[in-house]
Specification:
The longest helix is centred in the middle third of the chain and has 14 residues, at 80-93. The protein is built from six helices and ten strands, in the order ββββααααβαββββαβ. By secondary structure, the protein is of the alpha+beta class. Helix 2 packs across helix 3 and helix 2 runs parallel beside helix 4. Strand 7 (172-180) and strand 8 (186-190) form a beta hairpin. The two termini are 33 Å apart.
């Protein structure tokens, strides 16, 4: 602005600029915070056309919270859902949301985490936590919708059964993000229990190894896309 020079960054409703002075020229470019090359985002009709969210990796057995007890079980033993949600929420909202914070909210405000005979958390916990933290959630009921969500840059919460991430004795929760067209379509997995499981997985394998517990699908499906409103 004329006579004022650089006014600093403005965001989230903060006012930029001053009155009574002419703007000589202006250009606005949008970048992902993690884009060190400053390639810019594609825009259409003044809106960002596509954003790819990257979750923040957390481990449910992190020493900061692994021994915290909810009901009769510890965070390290049953905290895969709050840890997976914390990974997704932190990446989507761009702020630190710790697994223990999500776990405490679920335990104190719902009956869907380590209560009423339930070990861990089911689909209702995903729906209620997403609503509480202001994250848009959409149930995904086919392989095609999972693939489309990943292609669109969303984070996918997945309830998994026997296979790479879980066993016949227990189900598990992970998050998937990013997309590659290799092998018929695949995403990158973050496993809160075993970081050695992190890596690419095909959508076919995700679908074939999904949980078979009806409680995990009570909010519409075993998979949910997560994004900003």
């Amino acid at each position: 602005c004329e006579k004022y020079g650089w006014l600093g960054w403005a965001k989230n409703g903060e006012i930029a600029g001053v009155s009574h002075y002419d703007i000589q020229a202006i250009e606005i470019r949008l970048y992902l915070k993690i884009d060190s090359n400053k390639n810019g985002l594609n825009t259409k009709n003044h809106y960002i056309e596509k954003v790819s969210y990257t979750p923040v990796y957390y481990a449910q057995k992190d020493a900061r919270w692994t021994n915290y007890v909810f009901g009769l079980k510890t965070m390290g033993a049953t905290g895969c859902t709050p840890t997976s949600l914390a990974m997704a929420f932190s990446g989507i909202l761009g702020k630190t949301i710790l697994p223990i914070d999500v776990a405490k909210w679920l335990y104190n405000n719902t009956s869907d985490f380590n209560k009423n005979g339930r070990v861990g958390a089911g689909g209702n916990a995903v729906a209620k936590a997403a609503e509480h933290y202001g994250v848009k959630r959409t149930a995904l009921t086919t392989k095609e919708t999972i693939k489309k969500a990943l292609q669109d840059g969303k984070i996918v919460y997945a309830a998994m059964g026997n296979g790479r991430f879980a066993t016949l004795k227990y189900n598990h929760a992970i998050v998937i993000f990013n997309y590659s067209s290799a092998n018929g379509g695949q995403g990158y997995a973050y496993d809160p229990l075993k970081s050695s499981n992190n890596g690419w997985i095909t959508v076919d394998q995700l679908w074939n190894e999904r949980s078979k517990d009806p409680d995990d699908a009570i909010a519409g499906g075993y998979f949910h896309s997560l994004e900003r409103y």
